[in-house]
Amino acid sequence: MKINLKEKREFEIIQAAFKVFSKHGFHEAKMEEIARKAGIGKGTVYEYFSSKKELFQEMIRRMIEVYIEGAKGIAAGKKTTREKLIAFADYHGKFLQHHIDMTETTGFKYDNLSVGMKQWLREEQRKIHDFLLAIIEGGIKNQEFRQEIDIETAALTIMGAINLNYAKQIYFDQKKAEDIDPSALIDLVFKGIGNSK
């Protein structure tokens, strides 16, 4: 699909915004610097986005859409539930690594978002949860998981474990996502930690 000039310019502004927000955070970021990095005038930025807040929200929206579509694509290419979860964990870790500066400087604080954007974020978070539910349901269907498990609790546990595992190793242990093997964590999900007798 051919991208027109307007779409190309909008993409360039958002790419520039990502760099500036990652470096300075929301409150310290300047539209002048975003314009400079995009190679355009400040006035041109305002032709596309009415405010810094609108630009920030659009950047977040696109990041999350890319994350969800990427996660679905990664999982779709795998056969077993274990393979799907390992691939998703690896994808999540690399996404977190790529956006580490943005996370540290902005924290995606809700006070920078409109009411409508907050509602949209909740809906997108639900999509991520539903994505994991579908993987778990597939695991039950193909007998990789027990029939009686609570899929809601399982999805929350898996997402939490994946996120905390990568956050700890990337932020505190200073590891690169590509050097982190999520298979041990996913195997722990399958085997559990109880002493079966």
From TrEMBL:
Keywords: DNA-binding, Transcription, Transcription regulation. GO terms for molecular function: DNA binding. Pfam families: TetR_C_24, TetR_N. One of its GO terms (biological process) is negative regulation of DNA-templated transcription. Residues 30-49 bind DNA. Residues 7-67 form the HTH tetR-type domain. InterPro entries: Homeodomain-like_sf, HTH-type_Tx_Regulator, HTH_TetR, KstR2_TetR_C, Tet_transcr_reg_TetR-rel_C_sf. The keyword Glycoprotein does not apply. This is Transcriptional regulator, TetR family.
